[in-house]
Amino acid sequence: MYFKLGYWLFHFKVFTSIIIPKPNKKSYNSSKLFKPIVLLNTIGKLIEKVIGDKLQFYSILNNFIHPSQLSSLKQRLISDVSIALTHFIHSGWVNHTTTSTLAFNITQSFLLLNYWVLLLIFRKAGFDPKVRQFFSNYLVGRKTWYF
Fold first, then answer.
1. Residues in the chain, pLDDT under 50
2. What pLDDT, on a 0 to 100 scale, did the predictor assign at position 45?
3. Which residue stretches of the chain are H helix?
4. Contact yes or no for 63/84 (Cβ under 8 A)
5. Which residue, 72, 66, 36, is CA-closest to 53?
6. What's CA 72's distance to the chain center, in Å?
7. Rounded distance between C-alpha atoms, residue 60 and residue 46, angstroms
8. Where would you tag: which of 23, 91, 127, 146 has the fewest CB atoms within 10 A of its CB?
9. d(Cα 55, Cα 113) in Å, to the nearest integer?
10. Do 34 and 28 contact (CB within 8 A), yes or no?
11. Cα separation of 120 and 117, whole Å?
């Protein structure tokens, strides 16, 4: 429905953040010593979950996500990661090479993602223009109230 309209209601763009001090700190002179909790509209969260699931489904269906991307995807298990890693290690043994791994979490990087880049990615992935229009509206005009 929201994709067809091409916009995200302003009501769902307003967040309330509560700043809570982390316990047992001697001093609170740094922002790292506080934990922000973001409160979202429940219906908005539910709709965003459905939208996220649909995006993931169509991205996988259209082979836009690399097959080695296993983390945080539906229908991809941690055992899949173990099997893939074991395969790479055994392939290295057969070829008399050393295998090493590097793992890191890039979740926080998405907070800094330029939304124009995201729209270009959606275009390259073949998403419908209505979906791109929706996200061009979804990603702008957000407001946060702090308490």
1. 106-107, 109
2. 81
3. 2-5, 42-61, 78-94, 115-124, 129-138
4. no
5. 72
6. 9
7. 21
8. 23
9. 17
10. yes
11. 5
